[in-house]
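Hi R.,

As promised, here are both runs. First protein below:
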Amino acid sequence: MKFINLTRRTEIGANCYYLGSGGQGVVLDCGMHPKDEGEAALPNLAALVGRPVDAILLSHAHLDHIGSLPVLMRQQPQARIFMTEATAANGDALLHNSVNVMTREREEVGVIYPLFTHRETERATDRWQHCPLGQPFTVDGERSPARPDDKLSFEFCGAGHVLGAAGILLRAEGRTVFYTGDVNFDDQTL
């Protein structure tokens, strides 16, 4: 099992990680750093060159976790994209708003903006697959058996951070990895 941190810094922002196992690979989140501009705001996607990317798994719809998704989808057109239904609804609105903000900032900051378009966002959302909490899936989008084999599988678990937020339980090679994204342990109506 191979785990690679694709974030460019050690602080919050541009959250993006790679997990590879048995010839398969997933990207966990694909955020944009809110304090950086242009391509500097993206995760280090160049580190994915030569690695299999079968799926992109999203924990929730905040800019620092989903903001670079259309860029990654452009680079990895074969990858399937999985998230909860609420994350998909929120993510669609957030990404369209990001295009509007980048377009307005194009002249102000003097960098290449927008990094993706409304059309790319619309095409991206057509490829998103919704997964319910507590149900294991393979990276091919098939429901995983109760006792998964050595192939890479995942399961979304409620995180309580924002509507639709999920931690991601990954299983492969007899090992288990839990990616939290962001969590909230306080009681709430969500």
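And here is the second one, sequence first, then its structure tokens:
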Amino acid sequence: LPLGVRVIGTIKTALRKIGFDAVFDTSFAADLTIMEEATELVHRVTNNGVLPMFTSCSPGWIKFVETFYPEMMPHLSTCKSPQGMLGAVIKSCYAEKIGIEPKKIYSVSIMPCTAKKFEASRPELGRDGYQDIDAVLTTREAAQLFKMFGIDLAKLEPEGADSPFGERSTAGKLFGASGG
């Protein structure tokens, strides 16, 4: 495909074709993240909390602060990244909605950064003996998987994302539209 072609919908179709039961859009969780971060910031401002508040969805950046500037830890937002939030929502709200034990859901994230693999293994992204995200594929690995299955994105019709709360959704675009 030429550069710049939108493939988000066709990636969702491709994932369903290779056996994924449900496909969620992380931008939904990005919107949850920014709402949580705004709530946390308001709470810090109105209650004389630690300021300034720093936030990043990059696990590499978070690990950098933890390792080299531990004195700055109180300034970090306590909110999970969109990957972490969506993993938690899938293994809580969605699991309850479809009537399945969270530990029986195998959750896979597709992310552009290899550091997201490390993030998914962090203890705070799990509970009760299981992780919220079971595996992370980089976008390159997902492309290789599609190739292995003979999937041609150019020949697929785009589909919408599933919603952890009901019908397929196109909601969850504040984060991306605002620049993050």
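A quick note on the second one: The two ends are 27 Å apart (CA to CA). Let me know what you think.

Best,
J.
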